[in-house]
Design goal:
single chain; alpha+beta; Cytidine Deaminase, domain 2; 4 helices; 28% helix; binds zinc ion
Length: 133
């Protein structure tokens, strides 16, 4: 699946976003090496801290089905903002543990797009290795 196709799939997922508070819609499509795809959309809550982001939902769905970082080929994340959206801090932390450092993360808002890795988005991250004493 090309990056453009992954963006299209993420756009479909974005239609399922539940964002009555921010009105900022996010969709994600995670592609596994065996061709399977997992989707996510941002799901907000009146208790804002209970909100879940689209990219975390997609990665958690893949992990829930037993897939792990080595099984993941790429992750597309799309949003409908004027500015090209990038993952929030919490998502960067999650992605730094659940994706390989060089997994392509494709970002698009339908006009602009770019490809980054989590190593680029969250350099010098805190992780499991830091817990070793
Ligand atoms: Zn996030």
């Amino acid at each position: 699946m090309s990056h453009e196709q992954l963006i299209e799939e993420a756009m479909k997922a974005m239609k399922n976003a539940y964002a009555p508070y921010s009105n900022y819609h996010v969709g994600a499509c995670l592609l596994c090496r065996d061709g399977r795809t997992f989707y996510g959309a941002n799901i907000e809550n009146a208790s804002y801290g209970a909100t879940n982001c689209g990219e975390r939902s997609a990665v958690f769905a893949a992990y829930s089905y037993g897939y792990r970082k080595d099984d993941i080929e790429a992750l597309a994340i799309v949003s409908d903002g004027e500015k090209l959206g990038t993952p929030c801090g919490i998502c960067r932390q999650v992605l730094s543990e659940l994706l390989n450092p060089d997994t392509p993360i494709i970002l698009s808002n339908g006009r602009d797009s770019m490809v980054r890795t989590i190593a680029q988005l969250l350099p010098e991250s805190f992780g499991a290795d830091d817990l070793v004493q």
